[in-house]
């Protein structure tokens, strides 16, 4: 059990950002006012290395921005934003930001699909063009939200190993810091493609590289839930008995590589929980079995989705889980999903939830 | 005499700039460059990273809508008013 003394939450919504803080119990939360009101917050995350909070804001008229706060959200500075240099593409949004191993290194996944690296803590960004120019990129296909890389796994013990996943790009792994990339989609089903093209560029909805077991990846795809033990060379479908192969969000327990959480939605023509019952499922044995976790969650009349970044975990033991809905409801559990409470209602659609704890 | 660039209320909600700014130039491109030189924070609101006019920004020369959104070559003259206005868009937002 972790001796948690402080917890924090970043709740990104389509009308602004909220920050919440709690003590180690993670029951009562103090909330900020709405920050960046009116802006779509695609993603916000706290860099555990230096405490900087990064906020990717977007506006349908004024474009995408990055903001940073070095004082826990009390004040913000507009930061340098990844920019394309080819005069053709223009930034539509920053969908994820992940810190690298070395101080000052950050990675950003963007729409249109590209990966950027900063080596100076966000003062400047360079596109890792070997990924953008991968020979398979002609097969990339935008999903309903666009074409983007939205999940990154940056190995905190090996700065050269990076995993990138997107919609609909499939999964790519680099072992040389982004200079070259390997496509890794073996075993993924893609009902939108002919049989002989199943593993070309499947649509990944969320993906996590486990920090404690090299090669262990978990993903929620457009067509199924999967685990890999070899950085995606082979994927094993783990959730055929879950109530829905579709889903956006998933979360791992950074303390246990055999644990993964999914929020199944009925198939892709519905995109809401089957029967209107919101259920989270956890495997603790690498996908062999799943346990339903629905205590405290609405079990009727819930016609919302949980978006791809909207299931966050705080890394503590017991694990805190935080789940935001497309209808602006925020649920939380401080015991690994066994019991859920409703923290907030009436928010704008929640795009991302990220959490942290301090000991 | 100059060209008066007039910034819409929706734009001024985000940028600390006056409603009217005197600018110079022979084309809309020149005038926007002059405007951005005077108020650099406007650049990212008006132009994307490929230096194109953002799709939801409308520009009028007096009562005529800009015809060349690609190279911004529409001619302007001293005494013209250049209206820079956010489009009525975002209904699904």
Would you kindly provide a written description of the structure presented here, covering whatever features stand out?
The complex is a heterodimer of chains A (359) and B (93). Chain A is mainly beta. Chain A has one helix at residues 129-132, and strands at residues 6-13, 16-23, 30-31, 40-46, 53-59, 63-69, 77-79, 93-99, 106-111, 114-118, 126-127, 148-154, 162-167, 170-174, 182-183, 204-209, 217-221, 224-228, 236-237, 250-253, 256-262, 280-283, 291-293, 311-313, 321-324, 330-333, 341-344, 350-358. Chain A has one domain: 7 Propeller (Methylamine Dehydrogenase, Chain H). Chain A has one helix and 28 strands. A four-stranded antiparallel beta sheet of chain A has the order 3-2-1-28, with no helix packed on it. The longest helix of chain A is centred in the middle third of the chain and has 4 residues, at 129-132. The termini of chain A are close together. Chain B has 93 residues and is an alpha+beta fold. Chain B has one domain (3-86): Ubiquitin-like (UB roll) (Roll). Chain B has helices at residues 9-12, 28-38, 43-46; strands spanning 3-7, 20-23, 57-61, 64-65, 81-86. A five-stranded mixed beta sheet of chain B has the order 2-1-5-3-4. Chain B is globular. The N and C termini of chain B lie far apart (41 Å). The A-B interface holds A 14, 40, 60-63, 65, 81, 83-84, 86-91 and B 10, 14, 44-45, 48-52, 54, 56-57, 86-87, 89-90, 93.
Order of helices and strands of chain B: EHEHHEEE
How many domains would you count in the coordinates of chain B?
A: 1
The CATH homologous superfamily of chain B corresponds to: Beta-grasp domain
Number of helices of chain A: 1
> What is the typical, i.e. mean, pLDDT of chain A?
95
Helical fraction of chain B equals 10-25%
Multimeric status of the protein: heterodimer
Kindly report the spatial arrangement of strands forming the biggest sheet of chain A: 3-2-1-28
Q: How far do the termini of chain B sit from each other?
A: 41 Å
Low-confidence stretches of chain B: none
CATH topology of chain B: Ubiquitin-like (UB roll)
SS element count, helices of chain B: 3
What is the CATH domain class of chain B? Alpha Beta
**Which spans of chain A have pLDDT < 50 for at least 5 consecutive residues?**
none
Q: What level of helicity do the residues of chain A show?
A: under 10%
Total number of β-strand segments of chain A? 28
Task: Work out the strand percent of chain B.
Answer: 15-25%
**Tally of discrete structural domains of chain A:** 1
Q: Which strand-content bin applies to the residues of chain A?
A: 35-45%
Class per helix and strand makeup of chain A? mainly beta
